[in-house]
Amino acid sequence: MLTTRSLNSTLDRVFNLNHALDQMLDDHWTGPAARVWVPALDVVEQKDAYQVHVELPGANASQVSVSFEKGVLTISGTKPATIDPTKGEVRVYAAERVTGSFERSLQLPEFVDAEHISAQFTDGLLTVTIPKAQAAQPRKIQIQASAAQQIETKTA
């Protein structure tokens, strides 16, 4: 015999389980130190290159590094905290900005020109340009007519 549950009953069970798991974990796992910052990025393909745009508000170019190895582009760095508790007593009313280290890695297509990858950092936006290799560039193929077709064309 097949028994079914209502959607509300199933959702209630999921939410109760989620709440129970949250209660089991202490502040060591869910506190501010456990927050992970993953910067948002866009990857765009153009005719001759790929571009990666990464939002890094509050960071500067000296705190970011870009590397390319075995087809993987890695962007890493740190975003400093603006609240310094070592400078006397501090009362924080809201602390929503995530700070600390980050790393993003992207597997790039096989045909890229690794020697000419460039990066530019302006106003908190990192733009990495990855040129396509010549083999990956689109090209038009010239169609050659056969010799017999060329003779027919000339006599007609």
Amino- and carboxy-terminal Cα gap: 82 Å
Global outline: elongated
The percent range for strand residues is 25-35%
Structural class: alpha+beta
Helix content: 10-25%
CATH topology of the domain at 37-138: Immunoglobulin-like
Radius of gyration: 27 Å
The CATH architecture classification of the domain at 37-138 is: Sandwich
Low-confidence runs (pLDDT<50, min 5 residues)? Answer: none
The side-by-side strand order for the widest beta sheet comes to: 1-2-7-6
Helix and strand arrangement:
Blueprint: H1 7-24, H2 27-30, E1 41-45, E2 49-55, E3 64-69, E4 72-79, E5 100-107, E6 118-122, E7 125-131, H3 147-155
Antiparallel strand pairs: 1-2, 2-7, 3-4, 4-5, 6-7
Summarize the structure.
The chain is of the alpha+beta class and 156 residues long. It has helices spanning 7-24, 27-30, 147-155; strands at 41-45, 49-55, 64-69, 72-79, 100-107, 118-122, 125-131.
